Amino acid sequence: MAANKKILVLPGDGIGPEVMREAGRVVGWLSRKRGISFDISEDLVGGASLDAHGVPIRDEVIAQAREADAVLFGAVGGPKWADVPFEQRPEVAILRLRQELGLFANLRPAIVLDPLVDASTLKPDVVRGLDIMIVRETVGGIYFGEPRGIETLADGSRRGVNTEVYTTFEIERVARVAFDLARKRGNRVCSVEKSNVMESGLLWRQVVSALQAREFPDVELSHMLADNCAMQLVRNPRQFDVIVTGNLFGDLLSDLASMLTGSLGMLPSATLGTLDEYGRRPALYEPIHGSAPDIAGTGQANPLAQILSLAMLLRYSFALDDEAGLIERACTTVLANGLRTADIMSSGKARVGTSVMGEAVLRELDKVAD
Ligand code: IPM
Ligand code: MG
Asked: CA–CA separation, 38 vs 34, rounded Å?
């Protein structure tokens, strides 16, 4: 019999452990009601790891992540660690995982579920039915480019440097993910850069165009400057299907896109690496929201993004589309029934906390599995 698939669970800081607990209950449900079990191990990352071990992520944890079939990540960071040395920031945990596992393609869907159309700060007519996918490059660009650092100049003043750098290979591999995804969706890709001011952006545009002509002539490609894209996302977000962009623009635009949906607390993400010779693809799944230290420990956090990240994990790492679909539908039903955590609360709805929301999802799941 094949060994169980391995999942490494890294809850992290702040609300991370609270929302991960609810995802854990869904994992329990999968085993009880669907006969799908995993070998689960759990470890510390971020500030929690810094406090316990003096580093934001231990090498053993990186090694475990490499061995796992998938990593389910919570969130890291918080004011408690605001003053630690730069190399020890809690965020280093996620940056190292991305880089050392080669997790280059970050898939960030922004979907407006019907029951939540009023939670957006934009007019319902602008966002109803929204379904876009941002594919963000995550191991290159200005996040990792050299030279970097802060130096002191001869006159005693200081100079901070970071470098935006992209190679043909890096652009092609992330663009391929975007084109492949587009074929399964609306068949349109919009490539985003600043080719009007940056050479790295000009190269990005040329490489994506050439790749489309060569390998994806059936997919419609457009190009947009990043500032215009930010504006268009707010003006008329439904014009987009798949957006592909570099690390920094993707960071900004995906936060923007997520807010079109009304709540960061709703959105999962997947970060994928390269298929190896055994058909294994390293992958990490995490909610887009952060560790929300302001509400940590109060039991108010919305667990749906973490639960939906688990659904993405089932779909992309294990091809368990049926189970992923069941979980996604259970989340939508709970919302349609009027339950809301504080972040998506609106008048006439029932405000609930983290664990009641998690329980409600389990109840919906039980209805379909019995
Ligand atoms: C994200 C986050 C990270 C990033 C931080 C925590 C390093 O903002 O995943 O979007 O900038 O990539
Ligand atoms: Mg971000």
From this structure: 12
* Residue at token pair 């090498």: 59
Per-residue model confidence as pLDDT tens digits over 42-87: 999 999 999 999 999 999 999 999 999 999 999 999 999 999 999 9
Pick from 76, 88, 91, 103 the residue to mutate for probing ligand 1's pocket: most ligand atoms within 8 Å of its CB.
Answer: 91
> Does residue 208 contact residue 171 with C-beta atoms inside 8 Å?
yes
Q: Taking the CB of residue 188, how many other CB atoms lie within 10 A of it?
A: 15
DSSP secondary structure code for residue 202 in this structure = H
Structure tokens at 32: 């009880």
Question: How far apart are the C-alpha atoms of 222 and 208, rounded to whole Å?
Answer: 10
- N-term to C-term CA, the chain: 27
Q: What is the pLDDT of residue 3?
A: 67
Give the pairing of strands 188-193 and 242-245: parallel
Report all structural domains of the chain as residue ranges with CATH numbers, in order of start: 1-103+281-370 (3.40.718.10), 105-272 (3.40.718.10)
255 annotated active-site: yes
